């Protein structure tokens, strides 16, 4: 399957954000840096939610390195990362784990809803730009208390990695879309 332009743009953006130290490659240290930042973004989150998200980041990083490091140099290059969209089913389980753990961090009270400030704090910690974050939250259709269902967010994270999808809420995260 040929990924949509939107899907390619989405994963290129993810690569640039996950490369937390900006050296052009994904390595275990990048996931440690990113995880530390995101886990600290919601002060009210319970320890269990932090531990779960830290574990999801670790597992995600390990899976990417295991599955994508084609030349075996211990790091994932931008070219190697492109397989993420070419062969997405290999990552379904780990993306799912990450999506659920991130959405749970945004719902520290456990009522099934994510309030705008927590959403923005988490997405800024990942590295997305604020106008794009606001546009995505708006696209989710926040309720009268300015909240969105945690499940809507988790579904949107899963969609984000689908190679056949274009015109989805997650495209708001890509500058210029
Ligand atoms: Ca790096
Ligand atoms: Ca490599």
TrEMBL record:
Residue span, EF-hand domain: 6-41, 67-91
Gene3D superfamilies: EF-hand
InterPro entries: EF-hand-dom_pair, EF_Hand_1_Ca_BS, EF_hand_dom
PROSITE patterns in UniProt: EF_HAND_1 (PS00018), EF_HAND_2 (PS50222)
Single GO molecular function: calcium ion binding
UniProt-recorded name of the protein: EF-hand domain-containing protein
Organism: Streptomyces haneummycinicus
């Amino acid at each position: 399957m040929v990924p949509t332009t939107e899907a390619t743009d989405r994963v290129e953006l993810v690569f640039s954000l996950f490369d937390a130290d900006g050296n052009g490659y994904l390595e275990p240290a990048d996931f440690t840096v990113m995880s530390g930042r995101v886990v600290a973004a919601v002060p009210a989150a319970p320890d269990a939610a932090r531990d779960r998200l830290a574990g999801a980041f670790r597992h995600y990083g390990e899976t990417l390195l295991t599955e994508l490091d084609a030349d075996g140099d211990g790091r994932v290059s931008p070219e190697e990362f492109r397989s993420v969209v070419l062969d997405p089913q290999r990552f379904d389980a780990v993306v799912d784990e990450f999506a659920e753990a991130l959405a749970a961090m945004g719902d520290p009270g456990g009522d099934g809803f994510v309030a705008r400030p927590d959403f923005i704090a988490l997405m800024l910690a990942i590295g997305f730009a604020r106008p794009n974050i606001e546009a995505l939250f708006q696209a989710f259709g926040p309720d009268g208390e300015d909240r969105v269902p945690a499940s809507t967010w988790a579904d949107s994270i899963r969609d984000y990695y689908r190679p056949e999808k274009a015109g989805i809420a997650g495209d708001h995260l890509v500058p210029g879309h």
